[in-house]
């Protein structure tokens, strides 16, 4: 395959474009240009999402902004593949600094003047690939592989040490492309848990108080308690201060804090209650909308009926399905954590609170993604039929000069009990 290179610029740093010939003609890979490529990209997305006839399929409407799922990351790039002037494929990538392990530091002083070994995060620059799509009529021509190689080149130029992606375990084309052809290995299998938003409010335990944290308090709490969690983003402040972050909520036993007695996260962490839990909510509804297509008339009528009954008689607490056959939005719960014997109970209260927030803001579902070993997952309500038990994350080491000396090769490390899933890339 002959490849020519020429330079171009990306939204966040410089990249390159290239062309190569296939049996079907000359493939040009270049940076996405919002002024002229939007329609072509949307057409490829549409063609990729047509499910097998007679089966349900999930459509994603990116609300006219093909870069929406990466644009909140510190550095991002979208590439398109063009054949004879027609867009036939695309890929998005973003780079950020995340925790890849922890090391012990001896210099932390406790209240009793003793010195403790405290774990500190080890950071690495990691790149994430998402939204790789090739038009069905142009598959198996090497275009997907070419797009991956090009985006990896941009990752390397920008100092990324690892590249990773998430794919469905049973997506053979994608798994084979990344593992057989691109050198990725299977790394983690977190679960995507999805719960419908009912027409009734869900009761929040009366034995729990929920406090909404100011962004600076949320940043402090996350940095102090969760910075060593795998994939924790070093720029957590940009995440929590983003307009899409709808709030961070802390659950504590009732009676612990009266009105006005909250004095900030530093005081809280110096003397925390025996049990507490925290989560944050991200507004994906303003980024993309979803829609289930291909449902039979009978299914639609059933869903509509349960909804009508739930709306009319909310005290029955009927677990009704929202109208997912029209575009609907979702909220994403992230940064879930907690401590103590009652942490699961606290988390349950937070999930109920998040449900009611999603209902108030007109969402169809609430989703989250947690490690398969997450101890708090027991508290997260979800419907199995809407969830994905094993979202496959694959990873690759991009070079040999590393800053992660005390961790070694991250790709070989065993999974931890928790994982931080960045809402900017969900
Ligand atoms: C996955 C996808 C991007 C592959 O794109 P593509 O341009 O067809 O892939 P390529 O032609 O570059 O294939 C490279 C290698 O990937 C593997 N591969 C690709 N499609 C495959 C398939 N249907 N079955 C098995 N292996 C496949 C093969 O190893 C192939 O090499 P080979 O042709 O020499 O055997 C494409 O099928 C697609 O857009 N799927 C729908 C969206 C999607 O699943 N995206 C990935 C989400 S992360």
Would you mind describing this structure in some detail?
- With 426 residues, the chain is α+β, with helices and mostly antiparallel strands.
- Helix content is 23%, strand content 35%.
- The chain is built from eight helices and 17 strands.
- The strands form three sheets. The chain has a nine-stranded mixed beta sheet with strand order 1-2-3-5-6-7-8-17-9, sandwiched between helices. It has a six-stranded mixed beta sheet with strand order 10-16-15-13-12-11. It has a two-stranded antiparallel ribbon with strand order 4-14.
- The protein is globular and about 70 Å long.
- Coenzyme A (COA) binds next to strand 7, helix 2, strand 8 and helix 3.
Layout of strands and helices, then pairs:
Elements: E1 3-9, E2 14-22, E3 25-31, H1 34-48, E4 57-61, E5 75-83, E6 86-109, E7 115-134, H2 143-157, E8 162-168, H3 172-181, E9 185-188, E10 191-196, E11 208-213, H4 215-226, H5 236-241, E12 245-253, H6 265-270, E13 276-283, E14 289-293, H7 297-312, E15 330-339, H8 343-360, E16 365-370, E17 391-397
Parallel strand pairs: 7-8, 15-16
Antiparallel strand pairs: 1-2, 2-3, 3-5, 4-14, 5-6, 6-7, 8-17, 9-17, 10-16, 11-12, 12-13, 13-15
The protein binds coenzyme A.
Coenzyme A is lined by residues 48, 132-134, 139-145, 165, 167, 171-174, 176-177, 180-181.
Region (Disordered): 1-25
Protein name: N-acetyltransferase domain-containing protein
Family: Belongs to the acetyltransferase family.
